[in-house]
Amino acid sequence: MGAMESTLDSLTQLSSSPAFSSSSSSSSSSSSSSSSSSKETHSSSKTNPKRRPSSTKHDREQQQQQEQKPNLRRPKLVHRNVTRFYEIPFGPYRRPEDVLRSFGYELIRELDRGAYGVVYIAHDLRKEMKVACKQIEMDRTFHRNVFEENKNELLTIERVRHPYVIKVYCHFVVQGNGFNRMYIFMALADGGNLYKFIRNRNTLITEEKCRLYFAQILCGINHMHSVGIAHRDIKPQNVLLCSNRNSISGDYLLVVTDFGLSKVVTDQQQLAMSICGTPVFMAPELLQSKPYNPFAADVWALGITLFQMLSMELPFNFHQPQEFIIQSMMDKKIAWESAFRKTRQQPSNEYKQLVRSMLNPDSNRRIRMINITNHPWIVREYAMAESTSRSLRSSMRSHHHH
Q1: CA-to-CA distance for 251 and 245, rounded, in angstroms?
Q2: Is the C or the N end of the chain the one with fewer CB within 10 Å?
Q3: Pairing verdict, β 168-176 and 85-87
Q4: What integer pLDDT is reported at residue 5 of this predicted model?
Q5: In this protein, which residues make up the domain named Protein kinase (predicted)?
Q6: Alpha carbon 194 to chain centroid distance?
Q7: What per-residue string of b and e applies to 390-400 under the rule 16 or more CB within 10 Å gives b?
Q8: What is the pTM of this model?
Q9: Quick check: helix, strand or coil at residue 206?
């Protein structure tokens, strides 16, 4: 299942609920706490409150002129407190491209396509720079899911500012005749994803390089956990590479992406119920459909990721029936021999010990994030990643985005 789909399942349920019929748009836009976008929608009427609608030829001409300036007038904001839904056709906005332009973006070309949708390279017209845009067709995933649970995830991610977490600039949904399309604009990662990067190399990465890469991923996830966000779909495919000579590995800055399944956890003791993620990265408690701690489940997925980064294999045999897979997890039967047979290098004992502690089937005994960052195998590199992150953050603050 594509990483964004669970959010979408739930978002789509909302768009088909009565609150999202076009009739609600008038009440939401007149409410006093309407968002900035709905304020913009009504900016033309505020400039001259006494004006009667198109009473004179002069007024009509004025109105036409204003409609030709898309920036003064956003498409109709259908609902304001969840995610931004814009309805077309409305005023000068006939197509989704018109809405994108009103936000200052233009799609250039397709970059990647998957079950979740299409990723484009887009142009930020105001900043004169290239960005990535993920476009998701929401109608295809009309499973009724609990929307309440993750209605604010993307809005939260927009607020997360960290060098090792992908920068999401903005997101919104365009509702047209027979379609709901979500657009997510984010920083462009020129190095592709970590999975393809490791796969396309002719050589395996060394343990030293693995430490430098993993420390950056750890730093990003640890930051998310510290602000109460569990990722819930950690895997090498969801780590992007951005060329950066100043990174601790000297080649790329690794950033965590794809928060479609992320969960904002307000109560640390609260267990999650919805089973989501990518099966081979799922902890045994998820495979058994038990209530689980989403942070501990992230640690398990990080353990599988770390194993895969060094061996390009998985620690368990996923070609067998699920009950056997779960049994081998419960018995801690990590496939060290077969996984590392092809590699010319044997992993160090410290590496093996860390992976074992992350892949502990008992989530209460599984190593905690704070202990991973202090583990002898990664502690030095993690400290480097943290200090680099601090200097990068101060430079991020000095040229602050959006």
Answers
A1: 5
A2: C
A3: parallel
A4: 35
A5: 105-378
A6: 15
A7: eebeeeeeeee
A8: 0.73
A9: coil
Task: Check the CA dihedral 234-249-380-223 and report its sign.
Answer: negative
| Cα of 59 vs its chain's centroid, Å | 46
pLDDT at residue 142, as a whole number: 39
CA torsion through residues 64, 68, 73, 76, sign: positive
Structure tokens given for 325? 């897979």
| Cis peptide preceding 284, ω within 30 of 0 | no
Q: Which two tokens stand for residue 112?
A: 């990647």
d(CA 90, CA 106): 19
What is the pLDDT, as a whole number, of residue 64?
53
Find tokens 């900016």 and name the residue: 43
Could you write out the DSSP letters of every residue in 8-38? HHHHHHHHHSGGGSTHHHHHHHHSTT--HHH
Task: Report the alpha-carbon distance of residue 220 to residue 207 in Å, rounded.
Answer: 20
Sequential DSSP letters for 341-391 = SSSSSPPPHHHHHHHHHHT-SSTTTSPPHHHHHTSTTTHHHHHHHHHHHHH
Report d(CA 313, CA 341) in Å as an integer: 10
pLDDT for the residue 32: 30
Nearest CA-CA partner of 170 in 298, 35, 266: 35
Placement of tokens 């809405």 in the chain: 99
